[in-house]
Amino acid sequence: MTGAAPPRVVVLGGGSAGWITACLLHKEWAARGGSVTVVESSGIGIIGVGEGSTPQLKGFFDHLGIAEAEWMAACEATWKLGIRFTGWSERAGYESYFHPFPGPVDLHSEPGFVHNCMLARRGFDVPAHPDDWFLATDLAEHARSPHPAENFPFAPSYGYHFDAHKLGAFLREWATARGVAHLDRTVSDIEVSEAGDVTALLCEGGERVEGDFFVDCSGFRGLIVQEKLGVKFVPFASNLFNDRAVVMPTPHDGTPKPQTDSIAMRAGWRWRIPLTTRVGNGYVYSSAHISDAEAEAELREALGQPEAEARFLTTKVGRVEETWRGNCLAAGLAQGFIEPLEATALHIVIATALEFAQAYEAGGFTPRHRDAFNASIATRYEGIRDYIVAHYRLNQRSDTDYWRANAANDHLSDGLKAMMSAWFRHEDMSRANDAAYGAKRYYANASWHCLFAGYGTFPPAEKMQPVPPGIGVADIEGTRGMIEACRTNFTAYDPLTL
Ligand SMILES: Cc1cc2nc3c(=O)[nH]c(=O)nc-3n(C[C@H](O)[C@H](O)[C@H](O)COP(=O)(O)OP(=O)(O)OC[C@H]3O[C@@H](n4cnc5c(N)ncnc54)[C@H](O)[C@@H]3O)c2cc1C
Question: How confident is the model at residue 483, as a pLDDT?
């Protein structure tokens, strides 16, 4: 902490990114005289998608001291224990797998899973499907609440599904009640000093909104950082082909599980996200491989909903070269976008705001630590991108040009090449992960194993051999028994009545 005064922060944009950033910076600095003003245009509105999170959203609410009872019902939110991937592999027995958010109990079963994966990678026929090894997977399958009984001190890690409009509205109310200023204005230009610092937002009608520091949360256009300051955009298009989405909400057709479903389609994948009032669906696809009309028809057929209304979105996949330039920070879609396969966007927003606050304050409210901060955020983006690229590169489908092109795509980072090489050469994946992504890595060893093993990335079934005597195999029966015993500490619930 330093003696310097915190800045007057102006946030442009009132989508999820704008309000999350405003809440976090207000919490950091309001008590010491910092102020936050959010400028958003109700005429322009928000993108209104982005309904799935990682456990970092739970961390965000905990950090602000907002209990689930306060916000979940208001945002039509449900719990999320992980993501079920279906149809990404054609290998028998691996048509579907669950990627859990690993929690404390999973630390006990993970070594057995990793051990059996190593045997299976070497061609031994042992149980190595991820679905058998994790408590969160079992709890999702049995639609259990993630809150354990009081005498069971091992809560799993979990995130949420929520309505993006309602989350923004809830945070706006929470923040403005605590002193964050809110202006409904359309910004027509950005005023920049000769030194290159932003001095004010210029609104339609002539009003100036001044500040010391500006956060660009204006969505894909990136009005301040990209359009005005000209920060370069680093596209990920050669790594990730999907650039369009068609979105179609539907009513519930049964009691949902606390999970996102990610289901492979002809030229992409579709999400299925259960809220308390509806199901959010969207097909993310590559416009080079399928037309809008074909994508819409395929999604309608999959949902069996000929009447549902469709909305199309174009995405811009990549990141800005510098998240923080001068007296401006970018957050949310203005900062970058990796497709929503692992629902990581808000996680990056939260990390950006918190890391920025630390770096800025450590430098006495100067840019002293800016380059280190920018490098850290870039590493985070690229680590997440690589994990998502791996879903495509390792896919085991051969039915369309899209899947064949993804499996043949050699635009891979050195880090991802190293991870793939380590898997196929039977090397220690944990060490490879450390070497490729270092301390800032986002995906843990368990996640990489779930992905490779979940697709059945092992030698062909006909080449698998029985395990010779003398080689230990992790005890799947014992693990299942342990998981089932743990499950008795979690109650069944109806997610639609949260
Ligand atoms: C298809 C798709 C699926 C996604 N799924 C997920 C997911 O499951 N999980 C996840 O974490 N993320 C997901 N995302 C990303 C997520 O939607 C965004 O990260 C999140 O909604 C934050 O958006 P934002 O606040 O940056 O932008 P927006 O919601 O677009 O907000 C932009 C704000 O800027 C304001 N604005 C713009 N121009 C002006 C102006 N001139 N004057 C005044 N105000 C202005 C707007 O009014 C608005 O308030 C998805 C994105 C897409 C495209």
Answer: 97
